[in-house]
Amino acid sequence: MKTAIINSDSYEKHITGDGHPEQPKRVIAIKEKLNKRKDLIWKKPDKVPKNILAMTHSKDYIENLKNSFPQRGLKFLDGDTVVSPESKRAVFEAAGSTIRAIDGIENNQFKNAFCLSRPPGHHAEKEKAMGFCCISNAGVATNYLISKYKYKRIACVDFDVHWGNGNYDVMRGNKNSLYISTHQHPFYPGGGTDKDKGDFNNSLNIPLPAGTNSEQYFNAFDRVLDRLVKYKPDFLLFSAGFDAHKDDPLAQFQLCSKDFYEITRRTLSATNKFTQGKVVSILEGGYDLNALAESANEHINALIEFN
Question: In the predicted model, what is the mean pLDDT of the chain?
């Protein structure tokens, strides 16, 4: 079986304005890189069931979000989260990409999947949009796996350079999930210290200083692998942000493109005997277009290797 890429043209129509780092060119750059490959299956997103949205975010928030998209021009949901008329489809299809990915894996259509989607999701809390994010896509995936497929131990590994406060907010009270994050600290959005353990001791945060290089990162990453082996997840999610790259303009980690292959490979090596290779990866950050495309391609290389 192959690796699937879940993608929609709506992700390129989510306009955020000139100079905004979370721009359509992000998915275009990755798509152009991946389109040269012959070892991938391309699929479209599905709709998110209403009950899954209701498990992930508050009813009021979802209703307000649905009504927040402008008829024309741009609208700011917070200081840096911008939507436009075509954004509504993109937002809900980004969450829906995880539904298609999970169903495809469960129905043996492909082995694992990468959701090449935007906007990202890991800063979206139960009650609010922030940090370019409107819906916790990984939170949607977690709730869908539990609700429809009755999974008991879902691990989400978030290697975006920013702490996923939204993923944490959505998952912290879920005893069937483990949220793990490596991130720059102190840094946006704040939090993400070892005090943020979740309500069931179901979160591990590994804050690292600005300037962290590859060797320092992988020394710390051993803690991620140890926790995963102890947890024995039956399904693995990645919140796959590529902004820990040394060329990224929004952060100060010093990883190179090949490191994202290694992050992925090591994680899959540690978990495959528990998950049987069931993995859904969801695009989060990454804002230097060349570094983003290279790093995502390296991530895909590791996903394919474990098919």
Answer: 98
